[in-house]
Amino acid sequence: MMKFKPNQTRTYDREGFKKRAACLCFRSEQEDEVLLVSSSRYPDQWIVPGGGMEPEEEPGGAAVREVYEEAGVKGKLGRLLGIFEQNQDRKHRTYVYVLTVTEILEDWEDSVNIGRKREWFKIEDAIKVLQCHKPVHAAYLEKLKLGCSPINGNSMVPSLPDNNSLYVTSAQTSGLPSAVR
């Protein structure tokens, strides 16, 4: 299913969720600093770079494209961290990958067109700034901290079958202690 916006095509899965892809962009394989970008809607707020998948686009390819457009970085695409749902108002289903940054562009599409900014954050600081206005984005980093980091030897299956069997919903992260959330 697709909906057309003036300059983009939105794709939806069979359950009516908008298909999205994003990357947690890390400065190194230690995954201790993550790159966030300013929101196009609220320029004083930070978000994880990501966006809608285009028709026939694979989630990993969409994630790499979105990071290039929004954050102006290229890198080595790593493991799929999970598929996160946001049910309440938006009905998004976002594939979230880990990406190790290998190239940083001085000027990129969104910096030129809309003045988007980017900044490196320590993981704990990134969680704090995301919790206020993008709690589902904070959940990506919380999941990473809870055992999907390569440092502790636990990694996710690198890819999922097309039936999308792995989901993390916002309801699943809301019960976590505030120290973890």
What does this entry look like structurally?
- By secondary structure, this protein is of the alpha+beta class.
- The protein has a single domain (18-147), classed as Nucleoside Triphosphate Pyrophosphohydrolase (Alpha-Beta Complex), CATH 3.90.79.
- The protein is built from five helices and ten strands; from the N terminus they run ββββββαββαβααβα.
- It has helices at residues 59-71, 109-114, 123-133, 135-148, 170-174, and strands at residues 2-5, 8-11, 18-26, 33-38, 46-47, 50-52, 73-86, 92-104, 118-122, 168-169.
- The strands form two sheets. Strands 3, 4, 5, 6, 7, 8, 9 and 10 form an eight-stranded mixed β-sheet that branches. A two-stranded antiparallel sheet has the order 1-2.
- Strand 3 and strand 4 form a beta hairpin.
- The radius of gyration is 15 Å and the shape is globular.
- The protein starts with a strand and ends in a 7-residue tail after the last helix.
- The relative contact order is 0.19.
- The model is unreliable at 1-6 and 149-181 (pLDDT under 50).
List descriptors.
181 residues, alpha+beta, Nucleoside Triphosphate Pyrophosphohydrolase, eight-stranded mixed sheet, two-stranded antiparallel ribbon, 10 strands, globular, disordered N terminus, disordered C terminus, diphosphoinositol-polyphosphate diphosphatase, hydrolase, RNA-binding, DDP-like_NUDIX, cytoplasm
Provide a brief overview of the structure.
Its cofactor is Mn(2+); Mg(2+). Its EC number is 3.6.1.52. Helices cover 27% and strands 34% of the residues.
